[in-house]
Amino acid sequence: MNKKTKNFLFVFVLLAVLASLLIIGYPQRKKGDNTSQNPNPMDWKTEMKMKRVNTFVLPALRATGIDMWVVMSREESPDPIAADLGAGSVVARTACIFVDTGDSLRKIAIAASYDITPIKDSGIYDEVISYKNEGLLPHLRERVTRFSPKKIGVNISRDTPIADGLSVSMLEYLKEAIGSQLSERIVSAEDIVFSLRGRKLPEEIELIKEAVLLTEEMLEAALTPQVIVPGSTTEADVAEFIRAKMREHGVESSWEADHCPSVVAGVARGHAAPTDIVIQRGSLVRIDFGIKVKGYCTDVQRTAYVLNEGEEEPPAEIMKLWETAVTANEAAVRLMKAGVLGNEVDTAARQIITQAGYEEYPHATGHPIGFSVHGVGPMLGPDWPQRYGKLVFKRLEEGQVFAVEPSASIFSPELKGEVGVGFEEDVVVWKERAEYLGKHQTELILIK
User: Fold this and answer.
1) Are 219 and 419 a contacting pair, CB within 8 Å?
2) Distance between CA 127 and CA 227 in Å, rounded?
3) Per-residue pLDDT tens for 226-270?
4) CB-count burial class (<10 Å; 0-12, 13-18, 19+) for 396
5) CB-CB neighbours of 66 under 10 Å
6) For a FRET experiment, which of 29, 120, 232, 380 has its CA 20 to 30 Å from that of 176?
7) Which domains occur in the chain, in start order?
8) For residue 299, which of 214, 212, 241 has the smallest C-alpha distance?
9) Residue in 404, 376, 380, 375 with CA at minimum distance from that of residue 393
């Protein structure tokens, strides 16, 4: 083989190798694959919003007998649920319409021409209608009239602020658009908001579970002799230790940072900021704490007892407080499942406390959590109409997450105030049961 032929073969083989590498490294784009045309794929939060709408809205419409849900929003007076529907940044009047067609969920948004891009990018809607100088009204009238719904759900609610986003003037605007006959069909969409905001997808529940475990880990680290030195450590010292852990893990607090964590040594103070009170032997130390991870909140309480010199275990009265609170918590969680009334859960826990001889606690047994520490959904509470309204008679739904927190307290003559056990666990509701998302605590934490 001559030199010229060898050079030719070398170049041929080299080109073949390069071509193979290009094919392996850069696969051909399939027909319909627009990946290269979309340099900004949908982020996780946006994807979750779209999936929640597609998963929860249609069943909620059918459960309530509402066949159209209209959410209206605008700048400076936004509906608080608008952001969940891809319309959180709108300026001009906007209507988000969800219709049960009998076969599927029809999703329509009507917005000003300069507002439609983020609505389209949400991936939620089948149809996005742009208006200019003619305004929203004619398009809103045409779409609502076309479907002629028997019940039109709108966001008005006496008991749930996030489901009460329709202002008086926007309600009047809607009535003007759809006419008097259809206006008579307007009802509250509160239960639709409960389902959309309160229920969580499996991947969201897993994220909340991880956040709960991290919350518990920080609390366990704080309630130790390495952190709490009786006669020296203050409530504020314990809070700062936990805040340092939050910074280490890159998470923020579930509620206002100045009293999250709430650390109370001695007399109960409710939702209060930690102080310079020095933790003494013989004291109950109660921490109420939560973190926010990717927008999801936790809410956990733990109580420890600081042993006196020579004590191996707490006094009998302290142990009775603790065991009663644990029993009440477990009674509540044992009853929780889809379809149960919030009031039924509260009754199961509250009677454990009162039957043990303690006064009933002045708060609900539990509350929903999620995107805020006091989330959207049924209240696990007593029938106190002027405090909880009708929320305690709402039914639990699968995928809702709750903080369960019955408590027990006694009057301390020495401290001249109430002292007690705060024991709060985060749980998720399933169809036939509820599940603790963290490590269910059964033993009182002791600090020597």
Assistant:
1) no
2) 58
3) 999 999 999 999 999 999 999 999 999 999 999 999 999 988 777
4) buried
5) 23
6) 120
7) 44-196 (3.40.350.10), 199-447 (3.90.230.10)
8) 212
9) 380
